[in-house]
Amino acid sequence: MKAGVIGAGAWGTALGITAARGGADVVIWSYDGKCKQFESIATPANMRITSCMADLRETDAWLIVTPAAYFRETLRDARQHYAGQPVIICTKGADPQTGEFMSEILKTEMPQCSEFGVLSGPQFAAEVARGVPTGSTLAGTAAARRAGHEILNKLFLSDSEDVIGAELCGVGKNAVALICGYNSVASAGENERAMIFTRAWNEVVNIGMHIGADARTFLELCGIGDLFLSATSTTSRNFAGGIAIAQNQPPVGTVEGIFALRGLVKRAAALGIETPVLAQMQEKMKI
After folding, report:
1. Residue 89 in 3-state DSSP?
2. Taking a C-beta distance cutoff of 8 angstroms, is the pair 163, 117 a contact?
3. Can 173 be counted among the known catalytic residues?
4. Which of 169, 215, 260, 271 would be a feasible disulfide site paired with 174, CB 3.0-4.6 Å?
5. Of 114, 135, 161, which one is at a domain's C-terminal end?
6. 254: helix, coil or strand?
């Protein structure tokens, strides 16, 4: 199996390393031909870095791991090199301008892709790169799931057909983790933090019910598993980003929760769904 990984940040590189350890020959694309370097972890011999998207054409499946803000632009650049491979979306986020999820953007920008899926779960990149046991939900078509299991055989993968639910969990946990980080500084006490956390996640689930997600998905690895990891740890960029915002400091790195919160509020408004907590927290954080 030859895997193409589009995006060489921390998560893309960690997935590339994992796939290479599992026996796949990996081509990982980045705009500058460089990838994230993890301390004490060497680049596997069967993982090659490239800045030429044409190198992705001969791969058997694509893992797209570019930040949500650049997902559409990256797809537009990559689609001329697409040769019918299953595509697994590993980006968790929503378009900050339209509120669209990544699978919806994929359908618009690369309609010739019929076999696709979403990977989402409790995944800190550095731990995945080190080989720490990690589980994820793999939602999508049968062909996409087969490709995902073969490429990412070092991960525990739970199968699902609920693509939109798995995506919403990833988007929602980013937003809620950002809120939790902010409230760890700004709230009046533990009771208030618990209340806002619960109500915010409930609003995410309400959006899911309106767009046809399976309620059980929110209890899976992509749901409560990822939420627990991201909303309780300073290792989470979103949680740490929320802390920085509360302290009037610029967040470090790509904080998907900022785009996720904007996208969720916009999406809910378009659907006529009330999200008083999400909207209020967006206003408080001025994002």
Report:
1. strand
2. yes
3. yes
4. 260
5. 161
6. coil
* In a shared domain, residues 22 and 128: yes
What is the 3-state secondary structure of 147-187?
HHHHHCCCCEEEEECCHHHHHHHHHHHHHHHHHHHHHHHHC
* Distance between first and last Cα of the chain: 42
CB 154 within 8 A of CB 131: yes
What token pair was written down for 269?
């408004």
Catalytic residue among 173, 266, 284, 286, which? 173
Give the pLDDT confidence of 12-71 residue by residue, as tens digits.
999 999 999 999 999 999 999 999 999 999 999 999 999 999 999 999 999 999 998 899
Crossing angle of helices 163-186/276-285, nearest 10°? 50
Question: How many separate domains does the chain show?
Answer: 2
H-run or E-run covering 187: none
CB-count burial class (<10 Å; 0-12, 13-18, 19+) for 147: buried
* Residue 269 backbone dihedrals phi, psi, to 5 degrees: -60, -40
Residue pair 259/94 in contact by the 8 Å Cβ criterion: yes
Residue 174's closest CA among 250, 128, 237?
A: 237
Check whether residue 135 and residue 200 sit in a common domain: no
Question: What pTM was estimated for this model as a whole?
Answer: 0.93
